Amino acid sequence: MHIVLAILFLMVALLSVVSIIRQLKYKNMFALGFSVITTVAFGFFSIATIISEISGS
Q1: 3-class secondary structure for 1-57?
Q2: Which InterPro entries does UniProt cross-reference here (predicted)?
């Protein structure tokens, strides 16, 4: 069941990467900051959840 959560986190992280590229194009630094924070947070939690599921703990 946690693997579904990890996939959802990964999808949000990938969508925020698209937002980073878009905000760099528009030079919107405030939104770029939030996009970077979102990518790092959701990316970390998705990878951590996937590793946790693979290792079985």
Answers
A1: CHHHHHHHHHHHHHHHHHHHHHHHHHCCHHHHHHHHHHHHHHHHHHHHHHHHHHHCC
A2: DUF2759 (IPR024490)
pLDDT in tens, the chain (57 residues): 899 999 999 999 999 999 999 999 999 999 999 999 999 999 999 999 999 999 986
pTM, two decimals, is: 0.88
Domain ranges of the chain: 2-55
Which amino acid, one-letter code, is at 53?
Answer: E
Spell out the residues 6+ positions from residue 36 whose beta carbon is closer than 8 angstroms to its own: 20
